[in-house]
């Protein structure tokens, strides 16, 4: 009997352990409120803006593979130029890889990226007299151009040469003549695409504006001729009926 009473006293004096109590630390866990949960979600979203932006773009893009290689070759050349010396002391290796990436980027942008992302393409033809002739191609204006693809293409096209020009100034001020060679090649290849696509875009707008104006004028003339023809036919019909 005494044993049962002592057991009851021990049980009644035991501390009540709730589900929110951490047994290891002895501290009580508090359940976050709705406002705290929203704040935590906002902090997580702010910590990952770049990843969300890239993911959203590739979800919206009409040609994600073309956009991927458009970015890879350009970023690859920039990163190899900036970070290549960290991984190797062989300048020749860095030089060759950077130039190859720049060449791949030039060809891809000129022949693939522009055609798919913004519906434009350009090239040069050598004439019989040795002169160069610019040739421009543009998609039909009725073709839908993805706005996200267009923004990415033009922003990267114009932004990349600016970075290389800054690198050129850095090489000049620090007297790095060997690295300046890479930068000069990069500026030449990037500016070739900038000039080509800028002229191609202007040519496309001018060509389609002229074509639409000509089509509108032709439609007006056709409509006017049809109206005159109907009036003449009606007049002749009335004249023939009255003569009878």
UniProtKB/TrEMBL annotation:
Residues 1-54 are annotated as: Disordered. It holds the Pfam family DUF846. Residues 24-34 have a biased composition (Polar residues). This is Golgi apparatus membrane protein TVP23. The keyword Protease does not apply. It comes from Absidia repens. The chain crosses the membrane at residues 65-84, 90-109, 152-173, 179-198. InterPro entries: TVP23-like. Belongs to the TVP23 family. GO terms for cellular component: Golgi membrane. GO terms for biological process: protein secretion; vesicle-mediated transport. Its main location: Golgi. Golgi membrane protein involved in vesicular trafficking. Keywords: Golgi apparatus, Membrane, Transmembrane, Transmembrane helix.
């Amino acid at each position: 009997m005494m044993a049962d009473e002592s057991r009851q006293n021990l049980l009644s004096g035991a501390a009540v352990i709730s589900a929110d109590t951490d047994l290891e630390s002895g501290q009580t866990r508090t359940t976050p409120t709705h406002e705290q949960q929203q704040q935590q979600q906002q902090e997580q979203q702010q910590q990952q803006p770049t990843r969300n932006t890239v993911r959203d773009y590739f979800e919206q893009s009409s040609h994600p593979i073309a956009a991927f290689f458009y970015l890879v070759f350009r970023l690859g050349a920039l990163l190899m130029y900036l970070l290549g010396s960290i991984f190797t002391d062989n300048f020749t290796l860095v030089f060759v890889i950077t130039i190859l990436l720049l060449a791949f980027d030039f060809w891809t942008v000129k022949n693939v990226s522009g055609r798919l992302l913004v519906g434009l393409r350009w090239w040069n033809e050598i004439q019989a007299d040795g002169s160069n002739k610019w040739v421009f191609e543009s998609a039909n204006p009725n073709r839908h151009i993805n706005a996200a693809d267009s923004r990415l293409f033009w922003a990267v096209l114009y932004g990349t040469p600016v970075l290389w020009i800054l690198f050129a100034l850095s090489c000049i001020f620090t007297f790095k003549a060997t690295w300046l060679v890479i930068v000069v090649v990069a500026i030449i290849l990037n500016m070739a695409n900038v000039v080509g696509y800028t002229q191609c875009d202007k040519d496309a707008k001018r060509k389609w504006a002229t074509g639409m104006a000509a089509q509108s004028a032709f439609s007006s003339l056709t409509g006017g001729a049809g109206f005159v023809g109907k009036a003449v036919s009606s007049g002749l019909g009335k004249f023939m009926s009255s003569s009878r």
